[in-house]
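Minutes, project huddle
Topic: does the predicted pose make sense with calcium ion bound?
PN asked that the exact inputs be recorded in the minutes so nobody has to dig through chat later. Recorded below.
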Amino acid sequence: MKTGWYKDAVFYQIYPRSFCDSNGDGIGDIRGIISKLDYLKELGVTAVWLSPVYKSPNDDNGYDISDYRDINPEFGTLDDWKEMIAGMHERGIKLVMDLVVNHTSDEHEWFKQSRSSKDNPYRDYYIWRKGKGKDGKRPPNNWTSRFTGSAWQYDETTGEWYLHLFSKKQPDLNWDNPKVRREVADICNYWFELGVDGFRCDVITYISKAEGLPDGKFNPVMCGDEHFVLGPHIHEYLNEIYEKAWSKYDTMIVGEAIGCKLTDAPMIIAEDRHELDSAITFELMDVDMKWSFFPVKFNLAKFKAVQSAWQALPKNCWNTLYYENHDQPRSITRYGNGRGYYRKELGKMLAVSYMMLRGTPYVYQGQEIGMTNIRLEEKEYVDIMATRVFSLIRKIFPPLMPVARWAMSKRARDHARTPMQWEDKTGAGFTTGKPWMKINPNLGEINVASDLKNPNSILNFYKKLIEFRKGNAVIRDGDYIEYFPKNKKVYCFERKLGSHRYIVFCNFAEKKVALNIDTIPNSRGAKLIMDNWATQEETLGDAILLKPYEAAIYEIDPSADNG
Ligand code: GLC
Ligand code: CA
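Predicted holo structure (tokens), as shared on screen:
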């Protein structure tokens, strides 16, 4: 049933709240997405990952689901959704939905039942425990929520605690209960029947918790990981959903794999294991972000080492390639100078640096026009992660507030969630009303309309690159060879299938860099096929001089020479 279509796909991630608002209430919606389907087709992407549009009280913007089978009214109706998916399919675009099943909302019917009494049939859908201490008023263990504080919430009704690895409005499901696993398979099949082409499985590495829920090693921010990241039954459970749902249709299942190291990956993504098709992993993000939230200095050599190690995954494993999503800061600000110089060159260089790799690339909305982080006052942050960090630090150690503000100015998830900049006008062409979140004031310079008009825009460069990737066997299947791994300014690698080769140069520095390249075998005479500065020599010699943030792709294609 599965054809592996995703290996040829280029994904575009839509964060619906911030994409396009059709009715002026300030919130992006499904009819807004429908109005932009031609734009996506033009861009050339062949699949969409849509962040959650299900019913939700929005404690975590839709990642807290209260009904898996219906659409949140603020996004539209199931009929709107049907029109959207039909429109995508007509344009040759697949739809991958977000599947958030490590936890539900506390407003989900299952949880309402579960919390109502200890003998309710849904009690065991969640993870309930007695507290510690004589009066049971201390949490059952020391695990922390990824949004700060204890991962346990005391519930008056039954005098027990429930586990929530995210906010207290996101209680964790008990995957050890076979009924829960049956429900998950049924939800998948419900959407497959409606035409969905796959799922991006939210924090799927957290679903199996260690027997007895033991205390974790001390860690103030991420305590307990070793007891639930890729826990004891993860493979069994993924395999079960694969058998009951994912393998029944021509699907793509990509898992958000927090904590999954390179050495773990084959165990969940190797084709013959029948678990996930691919994983969104974090080792690259960790290069300049400690504990996934504290910014540390960027080091290109480390960054390249991570990319190269993942490129060397066994052939029966498939990579996910990304720099941005709704949880990460904007790559232009993150990997660039943050001052806006050479923004266009930088945006294009970054595109080349990951789109030429082996795996399925994801473009996050706005990345294709080079959107940047936003400057926010403390009170302007709206996302639960930043607001929780601020209130925790204020409570436990106020002198650290400047550090918290600095960290969030670089790291907060808000940066990725500012409304999409379609046009240079009030509301950015995103909304005619009051946007749910502040629009980045740089919309005059950075917007889709002006990028569409400018042949040298980041957007048009993405189009070219996506087109170039399509059906390109060298990029899809070719070997990967890295050159100059220790160089801290330039990322240089080759993709090679038989004697057909691409040699890629990406200058991550804001300075000119000269590189002696006589160590790249038989590269002399390679032909220039893409260059973000448009000033390189037509053919490659023994050395190359790269301008700030320059990216250049050279090709050696013996078949072209013969013919
Ligand atoms: C994932 C999502 C993130 C969400 C969390 C809890 O990491 O990408 O946005 O807050 O899971 O569902
Ligand atoms: Ca709306």
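Observations noted during the meeting:
- The first strand starts at residue 11 and ends at 14.
- The longest helix spans residues 178-193.
No decisions taken; revisit at the next huddle.
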